[in-house]
Fold this sequence. Notes:
The chain is globular and about 95 Å long. 36% of the residues lie in helices and 23% in strands. Strand 27 and strand 28 (656-659) form a beta hairpin. It is an alpha/beta fold. The strands form 6 sheets. An 8-stranded mixed beta sheet has the order 30-31-32-33-34-35-37-36, with helices on both faces. It has a 7-stranded mixed beta sheet with strand order 7-6-9-8-10-11-12, with helices on both faces. Strands 19, 24, 25, 26, 27, 28 and 29 form a 7-stranded antiparallel beta sheet that branches. Among the domains are: 2-165 and 173-191 and 207-220, Rossmann fold; 264-423, 3-Layer(aba) Sandwich (Rossmann fold), CATH 3.40.50; 683-849, Gcn5-related N-acetyltransferase (GNAT) (Aminopeptidase).
Amino acid sequence: MVVAAIRHFDPARVFHPESVSLSGSATVLGRRVLANLRAAAFTGSIATEADAMQGADLALVADDAADVPAALARHAAAGARGAIVLSQVPGLAAMARAAGIRVLGPHSFGLIVPGLGLNASPFTLVPPHGRAAFVGQSSSIARTVIDWAVPNGVGFSHFAGIGGNSDVGFGLVLDYFSRDPSTTAIMMEVDRLRDPPQFFSAARAAARLRPVVAIAPGVRLPGGPQEAMRDFPAALEAALSRAGVLLTFSVAEFIAAAETLTRVKPARGDALAIVTNSVAIGRLTADAATRAGLNLAELSPQTAQALALTLGSLPPPGPIFSGKTPIRLAEIAATLSTAPEVGGILVVHAPGGNEDDTAIEALIACAKTIKVPLLIAALGEAHGLEHRHRLSAARLACFDTPEAAIAGFRHLLRNRHNRAAARELPDSTVLRIAPDKAAVAMRIHAARADGHEVIVQDEALAIVAAYKIPVIASRHAMTPDEAAAAAAKLGFPAVVKLSHPDIPTNQFAGSVVLDLPDATAVHDAARAILLRLAQQGADASQAGFVVQQQAPRGTQLRIRVSDHPVLGPVIGFGPGGGDPENVSELGADLPPLNLTLAHALIRRAAIAPALAAHRGAPAADEEAIAATLVRVSQLIIDTPEILLLDLDPIFAHEHGAIAASARILLRPPGTARAALLISPYPSELSSRYTAKGQTFVLRPIRPEDADAHTAMLARFSAEDMRYRFFSAMRTLPVEQVTRMTDVDYKREMAIIAVRETTQETVGVARLVCDDTDGKSAEFAVVVEPAAKGMGLGSELMRAIIAWGRTRGVVEITGQILADNAPMLAFIKHLGFTIGHIPGESDIVEARLHLEPQPL
């Protein structure tokens, strides 16, 4: 009974309930919630302890802490589909397991569904019905968003409180809202994470289908709930960016970004066109856009000629002045929306007199025809406030200043870039030139055998060089005389560095000496280093030297990879040659990287302007820098023994990039690296299968398989579609196909069969792990009619069952229509048992127990 209750948790019923049961209605909290339930326009049934609470879609728990276990047991026994615990109670996860019911909470602010008239929360103010969903943990931020939404007419499909995130967390809730047809955008407030990998997996899945805006309170606060993120704040933004989520850093930005993304079409490009009825304000707006790093649209001759028909002359470069005719703002915006060189349009309206209302109404009327983002800054308060209310009522993105509108366009661009990054799926192996993995393993083994956990200088550079990363040629020397001889072989000018097993590079001033012109200078520099070492009281008997030829002049860069306590390995990139403990100037991303992601990291890093051509110096070789980042990423993926890798400095110039110093810290023996937060594309699961003279490639599905997947389903018979989807549909919605082809390989696997001669997808088997402990998973399999009878279904099922074993799955289940005799026979042949589901006469459940994989 307990297992069935948990397994059949139904988020569609919980978040869109027709019946609600409330326990604890006599407590202070319960009385407030009950009053709000009854005061709203909810037409479903509402039950309390005094009523029969049988089979409620949603159970609400407002009991005192001591009474919560018994309340959960009563709700579960009554058949509730899930519960929201508004009470503050410790140990809720164990209570929920004991009762056999899934819960949100503790200390959830409840659930508001304006479209149902449902207010199952302590809040008296309810937002209007709309298309955005809010998911969060802080009741204060939720109240703030509602207080903004009501006067601005911004509607919501749901407000859902995760609370303490003890059981049902962000993962399941985001999964639901990403598929909810009444939701087109998601706002997310994250205070603490119970299961970071599952959270980011769900966030990425949601962002594939909906714009997702996030805020994370305390991310930079010492001792705060997000302190694990504080050491490298850029890492959290990088992780969310790779998930396709837009992270904001203030309540004002959070709200502004949500308004923009929910009311404005996606950006078509990066160039912004500015239209205004004031020359001076137009120039100020252009200045602000340029300072913000935006590109102003450069109009093509065709667009300029089209505008001349409205303006009477060709527009000059920069902001476009509409003149005093009130409807021209709208006419110009409509013309610009057809120009391919325009990514978005910002209309800035300054108060001008009696005809202002006409200008605003014209903008509202033309907005429906504009195919690119349209942002409107209606300035002023005496009249501008009323104009903004009218624009907001028409569901247009309006702002009180040009700067706020510019920030809105930047949010659109960040969201566009983030979602593009989320679509990148680097393979687990991305290097065309095979690295020397054996050499890396040998050097790490040798370091451990010598009792060293830190590898520095020439040994560390040798590990890096095994991945074909260019490094400065080095020689190791034990005495000043040997150092001078090594420098003579390498060439001058030379560099001498201290090499000591107990002293990291740059530990004290004078441990590195540059620009040494000859052997005598090298000898003297080495002796000076030994003297400084003695002054430090260090053991000079272990000291040696690394001798290098002076690196070519260029921009100093740094690549640092370290373990983040929440996110796993994080790649930092930025300026080199500074304080090795300071990571504040480093941009961040997560492995795996490919060249596209590496270039994006370079361009958003603070050091990017220094890499461009400037002051007569040529631009650095960005391709070489990107290749270095990709190779470092591959080294980290292949070598889990590395806890920290620091390449500093790397010299970047017009002909390439070369590492001059490296430091590697190994993990303590016996400790394992956390799994990568972003799963590489598992190309190692690909195979070939031949039957009846035809060859098929079996491989994990990719997002770009969506069109082929749709084409395969179009070749199915009506009966095949009914058997697979339990309804007589002929086609699937685009969103559902997207969800089926863009999967998270950590918690779901779909293996497709592709006919080699035609590249058609002809079959697919899928296994989805549950959101609790991943020990159970649900399967689905289908093969198109023309490819049946070749053993493809069995081969696909064997492939996903094998994958499930590697993930620790111990039980696979699947629901099958009771009249699907071919499928029932097929699945029994694979060893599944068939059982009936209570209350379901037309559906049976197949079940396969997997023995644990031998170690």
